Amino acid sequence: MTTEGDSKTSSDSPRSRQGWLAKCGIAIPILSVRGRHGSPQDPNRPVMTKADSPKKRKRVFSPSPSTRIPIPYTEPKTLDMAAVSTAIGATFDQALGDVKAIKKYCEKHAGLLKLENDQAWDREASFNSDPEEQHAASIIRAMREYERKIIFGNQASEAVPGKDTRDMGGQFLTNKDRIDHGSLLFQAARKVPKGALLHVHFNAELHPERLLVRARTIENMYIRSIRPLLTQNDLDETEMVFNVLDKDQVVQGVDIFSKDYSGNATNWKPPSPQQWEVWMPWTQFQKDFEKHFPGQYIDSQEQKIPEGSTSCSAPPEPGSQVPLWPAEKWLKSKMVLSEEEAYAFTQTVNGVWARFNQATRCFKGLLNYEDVYKWYIGEAIERMIEENVMYAELRPMLLDKSIPTNDGKGIVDNAAQMQLIIDGVREKQAFLEKDGKLNKFPFGLKIIYCTPRSIPKNLMQREMKHCIELKVQFPDLICGFDLVGAEDRPNHIGFYKDEFVAFQKTCKERKLDIPFLFHAGETLLDTGGSSDPKNSNLYDAVVLESKRIGHGFALMKHPLLVEKFKKTADSPGICIELCPISNELLHLCRNIKEHPFPELLAAGIPCTVNSDNPSLFSNSMSHEFYQIMVGAPTMSLYSWKQLARWSIDYSCLSKSQKAQGHKILDREWKEFCASIVKDYGRMMTGDEIDPEKTKGIYPDLKCQS
Ligand SMILES: [Zn+2]
């Protein structure tokens, strides 16, 4: 970037300008640098810049011969500048207060606003809004602006902010504690009826604490490392993986804390001769961990929630406050992306993805065995109900064709896994029905078949055939097909074009509906893992008629494709499953304010809000809704409502289920607005929060530390 001073050429210099003006018969005095300075008391006085320095001035006033343009000299006519200035001043003063002109300006301004408002993406959500909903909308807006200043403290000022000041909408993990304990807007976001959750990875819905505690009782749960654990450095650097195994096959007496431990990144895979020599029983590992690393990773989490207080006593997210044992606490740090890992100065896109993949591998074995599978479905549904999500489409990775039975001796194949999911849903729904709460989760779950984008074509063909077979077996469960993995790595979707076209043809012939729901545009490079922009997955997603896409972060780079995504009278468009917190933590943007969701929405593209990988990102659907609200000042209560509505419209539910979903959503929305007015309305004076009235409603500031 060049500075104003740097860009000055010889013809811009005061002296040459004077010569040029002189040609036009105007003479202006050259002000010295000193003369240009205002009074020292004047805060707006010009400060001497580099360009003003004597050295620089010399250069500016003495253009090099090569750039100097000869100006023919004519005798300047001298003007009385005082008279000119008086005349200009008089004309200007006379022009002030031109009521007609101001009125015209205001009309044009209002016209623009009205036009934009008439075309606003969320306008339908505000049609027929009743006074209570309007009141709730004004409370939500006022709370956001109050919290921006008071709870976060980011007020425009020349004073250097104190250490507790934060930017509302700044880095999510940095702000999370403040959001969770200081923000009533977040408490409101928790209550929002959110409709459907359309983008969440199967193994990443529950907090790791829950899975770790559950694993305590599994006798044949084993763990391996890619190096012996002898020092703190080993703890920091290693990667750990769980698995349920047949104890008759595992070699006894394996000790990960011995220097002779043989585990590495590859020798656990069959047909490695060491495959049974690298696993240590998890129960034994826990005991030995405390002996080898005494006093470390002690969980001080037994925070008692103060009784009777307001926001500080907001119930913690389920499972998030279970006290852990030291080895579990250490393992948790391997599963959850930390603030430092996400935001460190030297972190890279590939680095954070590698860390993310490592965390995913660590989770996998804790979840993928028969006993926990059905339990997990019930717990995941419970969490969704607490988040006011009424339906979800989960994305399991089904490349592995089986999970172990409880004893590790047998296998549960993909079809049996699907049956476990159906059984888990039915069981949960039976409980809900008994309590008269079936409307909280009336449609159960659907499954989007996922496979990695990195596999060879022959394996992809196997995967596609397998997906179609599962659809035949479980027509109401399997609802889509997707590729997963970092998009900056091979392969792009088009690499498998032959396979995808065959997939579509087979589905058509068999009258099966398996829409593509691709991850696409989750990248800054947008070259589909190559160096060629033509390989952007967004083109393929459009050609292959994706029903929705995951992320769509890069879409605004493609104005033509934007048109295809738009919802119009003739087309439902292509819905984008927004995952803003995921995008921030995986280095697509620094914070929510830099996320392109307002542009995507303003362009008329239907979007939904999603949590992607809550267990790894420490987020939830409520956090995502909160982030959307603070990410752009144009967001409102009606924006929340429109996003929830679209989540039903663009789901894979049937037409009648969607109609029923909307009915439930409308009813819950009314209740939500009433609760906002009831809980927070008394803080309002006019359209603003009155600080005098916040006592006893907003938490004490000490809760925010
Ligand atoms: Zn995803």
TrEMBL record:
Keywords: Hydrolase, Metal-binding. InterPro entries: A_deaminase_dom, Ado/ade_deaminase, Metal_Hydrolase. SUPFAM superfamilies: Metallo-dependent hydrolases. It holds the Pfam family A_deaminase. One of its GO terms (biological process) is inosine biosynthetic process. Residues 347-660 form the Adenosine deaminase domain. GO terms for molecular function: adenosine deaminase activity; metal ion binding. Its cofactor is Zn(2+). Residues 32-73 are annotated as: Disordered. This is Adenosine deaminase domain-containing protein.
